[in-house]
Structure formats: structure tokens, C-alpha cells
Design goal:
Blueprint lengths: L1 H14 L22 E2 L6 E2 L3 E4 L11 E7 L6 E2 L13 E9 L9 E12 L2 E9 L6 E3 L4 E8 L5 E8 L2 H8 E2 L2 E2 L6 H4 L2 E4 L2 E4 H7 L3 E2 L19 H12 L32 H8 L17 H13 L2
Parallel strand pairs: 5-16
Antiparallel strand pairs: 1-2, 3-4, 4-6, 6-7, 7-8, 8-9, 10-11, 12-13, 14-15
Length: 321
């Protein structure tokens, strides 16, 4: 009986300080165009003067969809960072992430099939989440009150044609992944995940340095900050690549403050291996990644298996002694 009660007691004790996520303190507009985030033709996704595009070292897998990420800051305001974790964003910040599929093998010259744009809006220290679905004429995106399924044809990472019902998440789905305790927080733009090289000013530049030059990032000790490796970078070790993959695809739920805290898996990149639970749950990790349906992990945002990711995690788990 004692053994059976241990996990129940663990959940009760760790749940006592977890309040409900607050209701939105903004009113989301019905159309994406009403925010004025993009110049000219909205489908071109050209940010307005307050918007800055950014890229991540390792990105969330979402049925092989591509993304364009933009941070919109109030005029004269800056992002403030003191370490390599999630920085502080000023009141009024909007983070927009648009999901799309190129319609040919050359993404640079291809027409895009726009599916959804997700917004995170910081109002008085509280983040609010919403999703907007692009219409069939690709000239507007409309606020969703529930999830939606969109039949799509696309090319995967090996340029193989695939078909699926792409799932656009509801607000409830957004909260499930973005919740940390009783708050909603951004997931991707941690400083270590922004700490990568990008192409700007017709040349390559360290992205954090680029953001400093644009006078939108206040950060010190650039040279001493850690960086998250790209899980696609074959020059990195299998262990580093696998831990980066788990960080961006799993750790937002599997951490002590996430919605899957009761699994006793802590998949954050910075957590020492002997504190992650990976040793004990190797079979469950790869098993849940390798099936579709209700048992599939990640639970949100994927309807097809990420074959490359599964191979990477299998190799990593097999390397553990």
C-alpha cells in the first residue's frame, strides 16, 4: 500500500501550489490583419517597423511544417536578459509564429500554403495565447475558438510527398504546452536557443549580436552564454543533439512546472542526466514517440511520426549504459 501511495502523495504535494491559469486579460481581434503586424500584402509576412524576425537553433517539430517567427516590441522597449534562459519581454510584446508548407522542393522560390499564425501577447506581465487560421484564398487569418483540421499535401524532410489532416490547436491546447505552474510562458525564444548564427546584412552574424545592434536586446557577457545545439547538426554529439531535441519537443511539459510534471521526467537540456528520469523510462520514451493516436508524444501538434527524430532518440538511448 505504501508503494502505491507514493506517486499519489507526490502528485498531491507538488500540485498544492499550482493554481488555475488566469483568464485572458486581452480581447483577441477577429482577424489577424486587424493587428497591423505585417506590411503590404499580409500573406507575404513582411513585419512592420516594430517587428524583428528571429530563428531558433533547435525548433519544435510540427508535421514537417516550416515556421516564420517575429517578435513585435513597443517602440523604444527592449528584451532584457540576465542568463541563457527565457528573457524578460516588455509589456505589449507580441510574438507571432506562422506555420506553412512550401509548395515545391525549393522553399526560397516556392509559393507558400499558410495554415495558421499563433500569437502570444504580453499584457501587464501576463501572456495570452490565440491561434488564427488562414483562409483558402490566403489573404486573411481568422481567430479560432476551437481546434481545426486542415487536409494538406506536403513534402517532408526528404522531399517525399505526404498527406495528413494538419491540426491547428485551440487555446486549451496552447495552454497545455505553454503552461508553467499557473502562468503561460513562451517556449522557444530562450537565450540559449537564440544563440546561433543567422544571415543578416548580407552576411552571417551571431543572432544575439544582431539583436543588440538593432537596440532591442539588453544583454551582457555574450561570449559566456551557452547555446543550444541544432538537433539536425551532425557535427554535434548524439547526446547533445538528442537532449536538444527533447528540450524543444518535450521539456515544456516534462519539467517540474509543466503539465506533465507528475511523470517524474525532467527533459530540460540543462538537467543532469541522473536527474531527468531518462535512465528509468527509456522504453516508454521511444514507445510513445513511435506510435500515433492517443498514446503519441508529443500529444499536441503532430499527426505524423518524425522519423529522423525517432532515429536520433533511439541512438541516444542505445548509447546509455
Amino acid at each position: 500500500m505504501g508503494v502505491l501511495l507514493i506517486p499519489i502523495l507526490f502528485i498531491v504535494l507538488n500540485n498544492k501550489d499550482r493554481g488555475k491559469v488566469a483568464k485572458d486579460n486581452v480581447t483577441f481581434r477577429d482577424k489577424l490583419s486587424e493587428y497591423g503586424l505585417f506590411k503590404g500584402k499580409i500573406a507575404d509576412l513582411v513585419p512592420n517597423d516594430q517587428g524583428t524576425s528571429y530563428e531558433l537553433a533547435s525548433a519544435l517539430f510540427t508535421d514537417y511544417a516550416d515556421k516564420r517567427r517575429v517578435i513585435f516590441l513597443p517602440k523604444g522597449k527592449k528584451i532584457v536578459a540576465s542568463d541563457d534562459g527565457l528573457p524578460n519581454f516588455p509589456n505589449g510584446t507580441i510574438i507571432a509564429k506562422t506555420f506553412f508548407y512550401p509548395q515545391s522542393a525549393n522553399p526560397q522560390k516556392s509559393k507558400l500554403l499558410l495554415l495558421e499564425t499563433r500569437l502570444l501577447i504580453n499584457e501587464n506581465g501576463q501572456w495570452n495565447a490565440a491561434t488564427y487560421q488562414w483562409n483558402s484564398t490566403q489573404d486573411e487569418a481568422f481567430l479560432l475558438t476551437d481546434s481545426a483540421a486542415v487536409p494538406v499535401l506536403f513534402l517532408d524532410g526528404k522531399s517525399v510527398k505526404r498527406q495528413t489532416n494538419y491540426i491547428i490547436p485551440s487555446r486549451k491546447d496552447c495552454i497545455a504546452c505553454h503552461r508553467q505552474g499557473d502562468r503561460i510562458l513562451p517556449i522557444g525564444p530562450k537565450i540559449r536557443n537564440l544563440n546561433r548564427v543567422v544571415f543578416r546584412y548580407r552576411d552571417t552574424i551571431q543572432q544575439l549580436e544582431y539583436l543588440k545592434r538593432k537596440d532591442i536586446l539588453d544583454i551582457q557577457l555574450l561570449g559566456k552564454l551557452s547555446s543550444l545545439p541544432s538537433y539536425d547538426d551532425l557535427s554535434q554529439s548524439t547526446a547533445h543533439r538528442a537532449r536538444a531535441y527533447l528540450e524543444v519537443n518535450c521539456a515544456h511539459c516534462h519539467n517540474p512546472m509543466g503539465t506533465a510534471y507528475m511523470t517524474m521526467l525532467d527533459l530540460r537540456f540543462e538537467s543532469p542526466i541522473n536527474e531527468t528520469g531518462i535512465w528509468l523510462k527509456q522504453a516508454k520514451i521511444i514507445g510513445r514517440m513511435s506510435v500515433l493516436g492517443e498514446m503519441h508524444m508529443p500529444q499536441k501538434g503532430t499527426t505524423v511520426l518524425h522519423e529522423e527524430g525517432i532515429i536520433l532518440i533511439k541512438r541516444y538511448l542505445q548509447s546509455l549504459k
